[in-house]
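Hi there,

I know you've been waiting on this one. I reran it after we fixed the sequence typo, so this is the corrected version. Both the input and the resulting structure follow.
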Amino acid sequence: MHRIFQTYIDRLSESTDVTALQESMVEATQALELSCFAYLCLPVRKGGAPQLISTYPSTWTAQYLKNRYERFDPVITQSLEDTEPFQWGLNLGTGILSRPQRELFEDAARFGIACGFTVPIHDGRGPIAAVTFAADEHCGAAFSRRIEAHRQALQLMAMYFHAWCMKTISRSGYFCRIRLR
C-alpha cells in the first residue's frame, strides 16, 4: 500500500491539468482493485452546475448531470450532513430511501455502479465535495474487505485529490467534466 500511495502523491504533485489529476487517481484505484471513482464538487452558487471528474460510464454521468440528480442523491445528501466517510448501496441498509432515491441507486447499478465508499470533503475554503470509490459488484465481502483494508488511505487520497483539484482549477481558471477510458 505504501508504494501505491507514494506513487499517487508523486503523480498528483506533478499534475498540471485536470486530465493528469484524473490519471493519477485511475492508477491508484486500479492498483487497489476498485473499478471506478467519481469526484463531485458542488456549485458555490445555488442553481449552479456541479463539477465532475469521473471514470463512471459517460452515459451515466451525462444522465446524472442533465437530470441534476445531486439534488436528491442520498450519497450527496449524506455528504452534506456528515464529514465521516461511509459505505452505501441498496444492499447495505443505506437507510430509508424515497422512491426517486431508490430508482437512482437502481439506475446507477444498471450502469455498473452498485455500491461505493464516499469521502465527504468539507474543507471550509469552498464548496463541499465528495470522492466516491465505487464497485460494479453487489457490495459483497470482497468490496467491503478492500474498503476496510484501505479506508484511511482512501480518505487521504480523496482529501489530496480535492486539494490538488482546487489548486489546479484556480490556476487554470476552468474545470473540465471529463471521463477517461
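Quick highlight: The radius of gyration is 15 Å.

Best,
R. S.
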